[in-house]
Amino acid sequence: DGHEYGFIKSANVPSVHITSDAAVDYLHLSKENEGSGTVSMIRADGTAVQDSKGKTVIPLKKIKGRGNNSWNHSGEKISYNINLGNKAELIDGAGKAKKWCLLSNNVDNWDSNSTDMSNYIGYTMAQRLDIDYAVGIDTVDLYINGEYRGVYMLTDKVEVGENRVAINDTEYSDDTAPERHVVDTTATEDS
Fold first, then answer.
1. Residue range 99-112, pLDDT digits in tens
2. 57 neighbors 1 (Cβ within 8 angstroms)
3. Phi-psi sector, 128: left (phi>0), alpha (psi -120 to 50), beta
4. Which residues are registered as beta bridge partners of 89?
């Protein structure tokens, strides 16, 4: 595209560089706030990730905050959902997709001295146990609008689709769905 880009990258850690029309402060005001722009990713070996059209500066349709408990207790380091304009394989082996997550891993509820690694440990265990549809992960340095935001965990977005959870709608039609049970939580011993 004729532009020259410079990137900051830690040794042996991929980096994700997002340029957004929305300021970080605006994104942090509400999970509903969103921005668009571009994203570039440099792998640990120094090569740039390309999207399905061969571009290394990938259109970013949307970046927005994510989480429930983590949103309320993460402080300045929140998690994000990103939607790319073109499919790209941001995590080796995860396949090309448009939707990805950047987890801050800033909240562990075990105790105040936690390592903030519960997501990483859980996802890594699922992969090593070869559990179907285990979430793909990679640790990355995240930069938004040129500002270093910290170490994040990049994950694929859990959703039904190619390179994600491979089921189709006909596999779970009403006549083949697993048996379901309804529990009445308002019942008492006397009823």
1. 999 988 765 444 44
2. yes
3. alpha
4. none
